[in-house]
Amino acid sequence: MDEVSVFSLQWRIRNGGEPEQHRQDMVEHFRDFQPNFVLMQHLGSTGLTDGHFRAMRSAAKFEFIYHEADPYSRFLHPLPGPARAAGRSADVTFTVGSGVFAENFRRAGSHDVRWSPHVFEPDRYRYSPVSNASFREHDVVVVANRNRPRFRGHPNWRDRIDFVTRLQERFGDRLAIYGHGWTGVGAMGPIEFSRQNEAIRSAWVSANWDHYAHEPQYFSNRLPISLAAGSIHATSWHPGYEDLFQEETKQFLLYRDSRSGLIDAIEELLSATTPEERIQAGIRGQEFAYRHYRQDDQLVSFFNYRGPRLNPIAASEAWDLDENSLSAL
Predict the structure, then answer these.
(1) Whole-number Å distance between alpha carbons of 36 and 54
(2) Which of 62, 119, 227, 315 is the most exposed, having the fewest neighbouring CB atoms within 10 Å of its CB?
(3) Centroid of chain to Cα 148
């Protein structure tokens, strides 16, 4: 892979000018650059249509990979038109759930839809060893917004509020809650997305209740970010978790199908383990996240969707070097 070009249509639209002109500029960029591979992500607000994708296909010959990591339901929070159009045009589409999320694209006309998990960005969340201190400022931390939509919203938003309320009742000032909208004990206010790992490291356990609690194989990016930060993570159960998470994960990953059950599991872990055991669990979880949930490794897997073209081992060795290139197989 000799050259890479980044064209952020969304950024250009947000920063002024005529949106359709930006879309046409993108098509011209295809004509000028003549890419072999195209990866697109998060196109919901770009205004791209089937016509734009046909124009791109006419301008250059390339393999098109579309990755949609945002969650969408079928009716209340449906897949945006640009994402549907991208899925129809793409050679392969990756999404973060294997149920409704995948079916949304198949109904839209995607012919090859595959699951790929949420990941963490190692450039954003720099590696930091798990602290060997036997004290944490909090026992449990939640990083999530309190959403109360007036009309349409994400599923299970009431369940998340109930979950956090129960955590407040159970853990009191041993709990920290970061995000918009929370009040009462433990509420710490919002935190920048890029700094959430700092908040997560302040507690032994990071806890979360997903909005899309019934989507198979789904978890939000809170799981990989929390594990990469060195925290034990507790979250809502989804179908398929028993296949995704083998026995080794039980020491650093808790999941249950009820909010009360998850809270009980968190309290049991805190009471039944020593600080040293929790530190070791955090180390194992961090190692797991770096083996399975690095964003840069995921990009290699996208380009290898038809078979080995980029060497994953050589790529992993290159990530932290200033001068290196991906080795083709």
Answers:
(1) 16
(2) 62
(3) 22
